[in-house]
Here is the input.
Amino acid sequence: SPSMVFENEINPGPQGYFDPLGLVADGDQEKFDRLRYVEIKHGRICQLGFLHWVLIANGITLPGKISTSENLDFADISNGWAGSLQVPVAGALQILAFVGFLELFVMKDS
Here is the structure.
């Protein structure tokens, strides 16, 4: 039975093996390991996002300017979605390029 293959794996709570969507019902250990790695990576990214939100909500920002050409300070960017729309396009593209670089070359699952 595939549910018995991962019975000894670490899972939170008393339920033991828990796969309600049947993502690893075939018992594929490699697939299980990859899904576990991705879950941990996404959890860490969420923790960083929450930390960022707490810092920004408490008025803690980077010193200096986010854009010298637009004379825009980091402190001038507001919270939440409104703040994401206030970031200059060139800055948003740099963030996107950096995240893409991390995904492709640094945060590999193998």
User: Anything to note?
Assistant: The CA atoms of residues 6 and 29 lie 8 Å apart. DSSP finds four helices and two strands in the chain.
